[in-house]
Design brief:
The complex is a heterodimer of chains A (273) and B (320).
Chain A lengths: L1 H4 L1 E12 L13 E12 L3 E5 L6 H8 L7 E6 L2 E2 L5 H10 E4 L13 H11 L5 H14 L5 H5 L8 H13 L5 E5 L7 H18 L2 E6 L2 H7 L2 E6 L2 E7 H6 L4 H9 L10
Parallel strand pairs in A: 3-8, 3-9, 6-7, 7-8
Antiparallel strand pairs in A: 1-2, 1-4, 4-5, 9-10
Helix pairs in contact in A: 4-5, 4-7, 5-7, 7-8
Chain B lengths: L3 E12 L2 E13 L4 E5 L6 H9 L6 E10 L2 E2 L5 H7 L4 E4 L3 H4 L6 H12 L5 H15 L15 H13 L5 E5 L7 H17 L3 E6 L2 H7 L2 E6 L2 E7 H6 L4 H8 L49 E2 L5 E2 L8
Classes of the chains: A alpha/beta (273), B alpha/beta (320).
Chain lengths: 273, 320
């Protein structure tokens, strides 16, 4: 199929089970099936949304993709190459290609590192560029994320930044190596609406300019509708509906998708009861 | 006679650079059985208002000016001991982080019972257990979960338990500070329905604080929009949401994503220095305004009443 050739990331029959450890005889009771037989293909340049409630397994999927954890069953492919069993230099190369933006910008930045050190660290770890070129690369990346003028932010520490600015730094750190694929795990859920919408602009801008591919994890369908080309709705570790964002939201077929849509806040100010 | 009257409340924080005003000349009233919502972005002072009403301001905060009158009693003037009598019994608070607001080693039912025994000494154990069953029924927790520990509860159930605790002593006024912020949309929807149900059943005043305008629109009849310590627009929810006048209110509404407006969302003007302007020299919002007038940079706009309920802090007659 033509579509397959564009695939950046593929999840094939992925399951993730957290086993209950403290049992004398393993009965299977108490095991948590976080993901069950997940199949997804994310194409080049796409923003793909994974939408579900707390505990639905969407963050687990993100953690598997950046190899913070390994799947119990199934295989992940990056540009057609299987990801399981990567070690040493190959794993390092994979990490260069796949980056993550975490939910809470107050916890994901090291308070002891300046903004420059935070964003430069990936470049040093992966031995990219020279001292001078790294400095310029960091400044350029900060500008890309809307921290303008970048020199104002370069030597600051995270405690002097607002939540929205911190999240921009987290984005800068994720894109500085120019990865193929970025997992964004609820990057806006801790932010005000006015700040969140600006952050979405930054993500769209990055996609446009650098051609990166995103997995956007969220419980907010409106954010997914604004940002994503295609979405998958996940409930209790199972994908219940997937398709083009507008088709899914305008014509939901699964009852769970309908529940999510009905729960979405709006300015319908008539009291419900 | 209003249940709560707040006049010209001004709260400052001592900081290295002097006194920072977090709440600046804020006035409002609440009648019994009605609800008032405060919306605004992080740092606009809405949580400080809630803490001032509860008498729980941190040590470096001071009430510089104003009165808080609850049932003929001025809460600014009373001692900490007297305030302890009022907290819980007359004013109760639903805190933001329900996950952290419960004691992990005490059964949930016992924690609610403690709330009752602390404030009402002359109740029998039987009366308490009847009251707890009533409360859990009211907030929608099944009776067989009363003796569970908090870790056995989901996030939504913990938030319900916190609401039960706030209602335990039949307070006259409940302050809810971002009660649904940590919850996902489905659970948020359930909790909001619960709060609306309780509002309809009880004759309690509600102060509802949130950065999420859609949440406030659901639960509150009257709305105050805040920016940098001041109320910039107030009115009924119909006035504020259907006919907003202040440019800031319009920006807040215009940038809020819903399922219906994805195509005509307005991205607010980015200005990282905006927060530093303050109200001393003209309108703090002048740099954010689409179309400011000359005097906006020099004079602080006063309060202008558009209808008995609808008021705005802006020079412009109409921004439409």
């Amino acid at each position: 199929m033509k579509k397959q050739q564009n695939a950046i990331i593929e999840l094939a029959d992925i399951s993730k089970i957290y086993y209950q450890k403290s049992q004398l005889f393993h009965t299977g009771a108490g095991d948590v099936v976080a993901l069950k037989d997940i199949n997804l293909t994310i194409n080049k340049g796409e923003i793909f949304g994974l939408v579900g409630q707390s505990g639905s397994g969407k963050t687990t999927a993100g953690r598997l993709l950046v190899k913070l954890e390994n799947p119990t069953r199934g295989e992940i492919y990056l540009k057609g190459a299987p990801v399981s069993g990567l070690k040493g230099r190959e794993l390092k190369e994979y990490r260069k290609q796949v980056q993550m933006i975490f939910q809470d910008p107050y916890q994901s930045l090291n308070p002891h590192l300046s903004i420059a050190e935070t964003v430069m660290e990936p470049l040093i770890v992966h031995g990219a560029g020279t001292r001078e070129s790294r400095r310029q690369k960091v400044l350029d990346t900060l500008e890309t994320t809307g921290l303008v003028p970048a020199t104002d932010f370069y030597d600051r520490y995270p405690h002097r930044l607002s939540g929205g600015q911190r999240q921009r730094v987290a984005i800068a750190r994720a894109i500085v190596l120019e990865p193929e694929f970025i997992v964004a795990d609820e990057p806006s859920s801790m932010l005000d609406a006015t700040i969140a919408i600006q952050l979405f602009q930054v993500l769209l801008n990055i996609r446009e300019r650098l051609g990166m591919t995103f997995l956007f994890i969220t419980h907010n369908l409106a954010a997914a509708k604004y940002l994503c080309d295609r979405i998958a709705v996940i409930q209790n570790g199972v994908i219940v509906e997937t398709g083009h964002t507008r088709d899914v939201i305008d014509h939901p077929s699964h009852p769970y998708t309908k529940t999510l849509i009905a729960s979405q806040p709006s300015f319908d100010i008539c009291p419900i009861l | 006679m209003a249940l709560l009257t707040v006049d010209n409340l001004t709260v400052g924080y001592d900081s290295a650079t002097g006194m920072t005003r977090a709440v600046d000349d804020v006035s409002f009233t609440i009648e019994s059985g009605t609800s008032l919502g405060f919306v605004g972005e992080s740092g606009c002072g809405k949580t400080t208002i809630g803490m001032a009403l509860m008498g729980l301001l941190p040590d470096n905060a001071r009430i510089l000016h104003g009165n808080i009158i609850l049932d003929d009693q001025n809460l600014i003037k009373i001692s900490q001991e007297d305030f302890r009598e009022i907290r819980g019994r007359k004013i109760a608070m639903i805190f933001q982080a329900a996950m952290n607001a419960l004691n992990p080693v005490v059964r949930v039912g016992d924690q609610v019972a403690e709330m009752i025994t602390t404030h009402q000494t002359a109740v029998s154990p039987v009366e308490i257990s009847v009251k707890i069953e009533e409360l859990f029924d009211l907030v929608g927790i099944p009776g067989d979960r009363i003796n569970d520990y908090p870790h056995q509860y989901s996030g939504g159930m913990k938030q319900r338990a916190i609401i039960a605790m706030a209602l335990a002593c039949n307070p006259r006024l409940i302050i809810a500070d971002e009660p649904t912020t940590a919850l996902d949309v489905v659970v948020q929807d359930q909790i909001l329905k619960e709060i609306i149900k309780i509002q309809n059943l009880l004759d309690t005043g509600f102060v509802f604080i949130s950065h999420d305008i859609a949440v406030v629109a659901r639960v509150c009849e009257k709305i105050c929009v805040m920016y940098d310590g001041k109320i910039v627009e107030t009115g009924t929810r119909e006035e504020v949401f259907q006919a907003p006048v202040h440019p800031y209110t319009r920006q807040l509404l215009g940038s809020y994503l819903t399922l219906d407006n994805c195509n005509n969302i307005k991205v607010p003007y980015i200005n990282s220095r905006l927060g530093q302007k303050g109200w001393e020299h003209g309108c703090a919002l002048a740099p954010l305004c689409d179309n400011p007038m000359d005097k906006c940079d020099r004079l602080c706009p006063g309060w202008r009443q558009l209808s008995p309920t609808h008021g705005v802090r802006c020079f412009k007659k109409s921004t439409i």
